[in-house]
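step: validate -> pass
step: tokenize input -> pass
step: predict -> running
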Amino acid sequence: MNKFKLYRLLRKNTNLSYKRSPIFEQNKWAKAITYFGGGMFALYLILYGCIIALTAEGWAGRMISFMPIILLIDFLLRFIVQTTPGMMVKPYILQPISRYTAIECFLISSHLSGYNFLWLAMFIPYSIILLFAGAGFWPVMLELAASVLLMMLNSQIYLFFRTLINRKVWWFIVAIGFYLLLFLPFILNYNSNGFQRMVNLYAEAGRAWWFLPVVILLITGLFFVNRYFQFKYVYEEISKKGEQALKHVSKFAFLNRFGLIGEYLKIELKSNLRNKTMRSRCIMSLALIIMFSGLIAYTTIYDNAIMINFWCLYCFAIYSVTTLIKIMGQEGNYIDLLMMHRENIIYLLKAKFWFYSSVLLIPFLIMLPAVFTGKFTLLMLVAYMLLTAGLLHFVIFQLAVYNKQTLPLQQKMTAKGNFENGMQLVIELIALFGPGVIVGVGYLLVGLTYTYLFMCVLGLAFIVTYPLWIRNIYKRMMQRRYDNIEGFRTTRQ
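step: predict -> pass
step: emit ->
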């Protein structure tokens, strides 16, 4: 069997694995919403492709000049839409085929993924407008080819950094630093029309004869680098070569005074400190909180009222949204033990509420100095913190009723992706956009001051009544317990 036939076979097996999954039926909602989101994204790309073409003034190279921004956005989006080949290659490691063959096939499929070709929705309208504006045919075609190849190169760069991030989450900082290097011409000439200089520099590079060969060489080189790292780390993970003995045990004795809630708080803290999957999610979420909070509070990048309120809200919400989205997923590893004392789940949920509400002090303290400089008001910060602790947590804790997929605590390279069902997606969308709608409507109707006061009252109401709605969540979980337990068992790694 040649590699082309093997590639087709592996693609077929991957599609069949999704269809044979016990959660395939519930993924239909997720697929429908994904296709809708992809269609909306394509419309935005068409719009921006036309805008960039209209600023090009009839000469090729404008799209290449904006590539640093596009590549950075594409890198962040790939965390949502693209998995590493290591997640799919695990079943083929011991098969009687070349050890790199399966990884090569999945790397090639990453180049031919639908997401890569989705960017053609921006590149093709741009190229058509340039052709009608009088640009030469071959310069336009060369820029189109260069744009597509750059997206493929970015796919390989993403796989390289994502593989390292799966090992050590600190590589995320290196990845962001790498993309910031692309903005170096702008940073070095910040006060002297630096952006225009950066645009002109990349436009000239895109028209150079050596540009396409260099991009192709980089793609080829990164392909072999990724092939090596994917196999190395997948093999280490499967053979458990990277495991180390625990050197220190933290007791967190100060939590003993809280009884059972304190014991579950200890579990939550230790899970975030020890388990690779949860630790990575925790560190990445905290890094995003610190970055966005610092940008909002201490720079002039967002100085209008709408953007300040929008980003201030998500500085508080981002940790809960990114970590609680899989609430009860890690407990799926030992759900049978929890069910032996079922009412302990109430104390577990209360401990999670306390823990994630306490984390809100981090963005509050980071942005507090900006209150003294007059950029924010204390009422604004308190309102967003209370709304997140109360309303947002009330909404996102509802996922505990419907989540039934076990989240691996240690596996990263070979862990399977988790798809959502329709109800989960509805809850997640409400959590993402609901608080923003409240702020926007209040801003238009009664102004920000009264909106903040309403947010404080609404948030406090959900905080005070949290034992009631957590007990309601528990009762609904018990009504679905057999279905959820079966889901947790079938999705364990």
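step: describe -> The radius of gyration is 25 Å.
step: cleanup -> pass
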